[in-house]
Design brief:
The protein is an alpha+beta fold and 91 residues long. It has a single domain, classed as first zn-finger domain of poly(adp-ribose) polymerase-1, CATH 3.30.1740.20. Helices cover 23% and strands 22% of the residues. The longest helix is centred in the middle third of the chain and has 9 residues. The chain is elongated, with a radius of gyration of 18 Å.
């Protein structure tokens, strides 16, 4: 059977076994180099209030939250898109 991707859908290289991560949506255990990483920034301050404070020169702290998704959940939730073969090979 032909191989679809040279990397096998992973980005690990020659590192050996990858650490496992839980999918943010379904909870499945997936290798970290195969998981789709999605970064969300959230602020404890309401965005309208934050806009006013930033115009006055105040610094508004943001929290960085990283969510890992398995391939099927990432596609279902629109975090990644299915690309054509020639577009896959370009990146």
């Amino acid at each position: 059977m032909p191989k679809k991707r040279k990397s096998g859908g992973r980005s690990g290289g020659k590192r050996g076994r990858a650490t496992m991560k839980h999918c943010h949506a379904c909870g499945a255990l997936i290798p970290a180099d195969k998981a789709k990483k999605y970064t969300i920034y959230s602020s404890p301050v309401d965005y309208r209030l934050a806009k006013e404070l930033q115009s006055e020169g105040a610094h508004i702290p943001r929290q960085k939250k990283i969510a890992y998704y398995c391939v099927s959940c990432a596609i279902h939730r629109g975090r990644t898109n299915i690309r054509q073969k020639d577009q896959r090979k370009s990146n």
